[in-house]
């Protein structure tokens, strides 16, 4: 039988591995986790994704006629930012019941917790419906790792998906989609002293910005997630002050809801922006939603009542997750987002997770896996 794994110590170990994306450098972290899982009876397959980058898919069990429960999480992190940290972001320091470091909440604590739970159950999972652990690289840059696994056909089947993203251990039944577009306008360059000889792409972009500011989605609000949102995050135009710019680029961040298909959103934008604006899709991640009435979701809510003190109410996340890529590949299984990290600490300076929440997550994951596998 494999030795028990401390989720706190494992989180500390993988926080000490710098996996800031870019460049990522997730392979060593994936192999550390894979070695622990192999020691507990799992098969571990590494799927390279560039130099020193890899995704990990680990499996155990898989009784005929059943589908495993998938636990998934990513091991890349965002950059540190410009503000000086008071704690070393790669030391795994603890202070006042908190573990500090880049990725502690988003989301190495969640990955460590479900790996620790899986190792704790170990070979008892053999002969059951089993588990499939999908640990990805490149999530922070548009779920690259998850899409890479889908493209390679590296995934098996899953009857349900649990995403260990930060929720303070409160189960969520979905999240908005991410639909990122570049809106490009084109013109004709000329000397800045003779603008009448050119065609100014920035002026066209300014007109487009006014349309985007007034834009209202045609689809109705979702009963749980509300209305889709649109934000202009970047704008770039021109190369130098004394030339007429012949190109401008607007970066659009749309967070969609399940009853607002991306194709319809793009068609509406094209109609309202007109022919002088070209739209290019950058990221296309569908929303994720499972009805709270689904039996497995209800079972998870009942399990979490014991840990939270009250039965959870149906809520959704504001961020996107790898479930947007994995859900379609698994043919739409019920999905819950549930992890020990603090959502408000994601991408923050002096990021931390609460140690008590980490320990609770291990116990909750073990119970959810036992119920699925009937052990």
What does this molecule look like?
The chain has a 6-stranded mixed sheet with strand order 1-2-6-3-7-14, sandwiched between helices. The two termini are 16 Å apart. The longest helix has 19 residues, at 355-373. It has helices at 7-15, 27-39, 104-121, 144-152, 201-214, 262-273, 295-308, 323-329, 355-373; strands at 43-48, 54-60, 69-74, 94-95, 98-100, 131-136, 160-163, 174-175, 177-186, 229-237, 247-256, 277-285, 288-289, 335-337, 352-354. The radius of gyration is 23 Å and the shape is globular. It contains 9 helices and 15 strands. It has 2 domains: 7-175 and 287-373, Aminopeptidase, CATH 3.40.630; 177-285, Alpha-Beta Plaits, CATH 3.30.70.
Offer a concise description of the structure.
This protein has helices spanning 7-15, 27-39, 104-121, 144-152, 201-214, 262-273, 295-308, 323-329, 355-373, and strands spanning 43-48, 54-60, 69-74, 94-95, 98-100, 131-136, 160-163, 174-175, 177-186, 229-237, 247-256, 277-285, 288-289, 335-337, 352-354.
Secondary-structure blueprint:
Layout: H1 7-15, H2 27-39, E1 43-48, E2 54-60, E3 69-74, E4 94-95, E5 98-100, H3 104-121, E6 131-136, H4 144-152, E7 160-163, E8 174-175, E9 177-186, H5 201-214, E10 229-237, E11 247-256, H6 262-273, E12 277-285, E13 288-289, H7 295-308, H8 323-329, E14 335-337, E15 352-354, H9 355-373
Parallel strand pairs: 3-6, 3-7, 7-14
Antiparallel strand pairs: 1-2, 2-6, 4-5, 5-15, 8-13, 9-11, 9-12, 10-11
Helix pairs in contact: 1-3, 2-3, 3-9, 7-9
CATH class call of the largest domain: Alpha Beta
Radius of gyration: 23 Å
Q: What sequence of helices (H) and strands (E) makes up the elements? A: HHEEEEEHEHEEEHEEHEEHHEEH
Average pLDDT: 97
> How are the strands ordered across the major sheet?
1-2-6-3-7-14
Distance between the termini: 16 Å
The CATH superfamily of the largest domain bears the name: Zn peptidases
Which assembly state applies to the chains in this document?
single chain
Number of strands: 15
What's the tally of helices? 9
CATH architecture of the largest domain: 3-Layer(aba) Sandwich
Structural class: alpha+beta
Could you give a short account of the major beta sheet?
A: 6 strands, mixed
Please give the share of residues in helix.
25-40%
Shape, per Cα inertia axes: globular
Say what the CATH topology of the largest domain is.
Answer: Aminopeptidase
Beta-strand content bin: 15-25%
Low-confidence stretches: none
Number of domains: 2
């Amino acid at each position: 039988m494999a030795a028990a794994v401390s989720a706190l110590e494992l989180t500390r170990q993988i926080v000490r591995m710098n996996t800031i994306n870019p460049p990522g450098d997730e392979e060593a972290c994936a192999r550390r986790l894979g070695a622990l899982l192999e020691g507990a009876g799992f098969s571990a397959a590494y799927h390279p994704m560039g130099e020193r980058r890899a995704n990990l898919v680990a499996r155990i069990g898989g009784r005929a006629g059943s589908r495993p429960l998938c636990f998934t999480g990513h091991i890349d992190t965002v950059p540190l930012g410009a503000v000086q940290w008071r704690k070393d972001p790669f030391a795994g320091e603890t202070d006042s019941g908190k573990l500090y470091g880049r990725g502690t909440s988003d989301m190495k604590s969640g990955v460590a917790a479900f790996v620790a739970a899986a190792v704790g159950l170990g070979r008892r999972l053999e002969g059951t419906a089993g588990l499939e652990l999908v640990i990805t690289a490149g999530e922070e840059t548009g779920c690259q790792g998850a899409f890479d696994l889908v493209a390679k056909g590296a995934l098996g089947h899953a009857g349900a998906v649990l995403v260990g993203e930060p929720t303070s251990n409160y189960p969520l039944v979905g999240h908005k989609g991410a639909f990122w577009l570049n809106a490009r306008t084109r013109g004709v360059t000329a000397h800045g002293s003779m603008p009448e000889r050119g065609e100014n792409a920035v002026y066209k972009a300014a007109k487009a910005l006014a349309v985007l500011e007034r834009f209202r989605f045609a689809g109705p609000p979702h009963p749980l997630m509300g209305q889709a949102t649109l934000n202009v995050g970047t704008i770039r135009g021109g190369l130098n002050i004394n030339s007429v710019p012949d190109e401008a680029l607007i970066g659009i961040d749309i967070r969609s809801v399940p009853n607002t298909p991306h194709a319809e959103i793009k068609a509406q934008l094209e109609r309202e922006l007109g022919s002088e604006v070209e739209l290019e899709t950058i990221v296309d991640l569908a929303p994720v939603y499972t009805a709270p009435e689904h039996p497995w979701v209800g079972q998870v809510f009942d399990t979490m009542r014991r840990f939270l003190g009250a039965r959870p109410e149906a809520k959704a996340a504001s961020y996107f997750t790898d479930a947007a890529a994995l859900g379609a590949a698994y043919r739409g299984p019920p999905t819950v987002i549930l992890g020990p990290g603090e959502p408000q600490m994601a991408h923050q300076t002096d990021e931390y997770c609460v140690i008590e929440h980490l320990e609770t997550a291990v116990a909750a994951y073990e119970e959810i896996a036992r119920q699925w596998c009937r052990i």
